[in-house]
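I have been asked to look over a protein record a colleague put together. The record follows directly below this note.
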Amino acid sequence: MALTPVEERLHRVTKLPNKSVLLLKEGVSLESYLSRSLDDAMAQTVADRLNLADEFLAMAHALMRSRTDLSRPAVARYYYAMYHAMRAASFQFFNGDDFDDHTALSTKGVPSDYPAAALASNDLKNARLLRNEADYEQYPSNRTYFKAEARTLRPVATSFVAAARAYVTSKGNPYS
């Protein structure tokens, strides 16, 4: 059966379940409402998530400069800077947000063409484990441990966020 290109598309429409039709309608509605293509809106959301990563990085730096010891929350902010940076890179690569789960992001969400992907995955996983320790564990109670860990994490998180932005930019995102 030889179909014209228009008939091929109409034939596909006849096979759509209701949920798919609703999603297609939402896509058309989004483009109309935003007065831009869905691809452009997605690129903007990637850049906005990178900006959020920068905000978390700035918060962590400010916490480290505090006169009181705020190294535990600084560890968490450094991790979340890395988390949001990788979610941006993942969204850019996969064209969707399939890896918001923290463990899945570090194991499956790092793009296959990401520079030093295995190292980035490992850095993200280690930062998450440290964040969990800083947020949930009462020991070690010695404050110097988390202060040292936060100081170690600072350059890792800073370069991690910069690398994610460079990756997204290399993919042609006009907003990054």
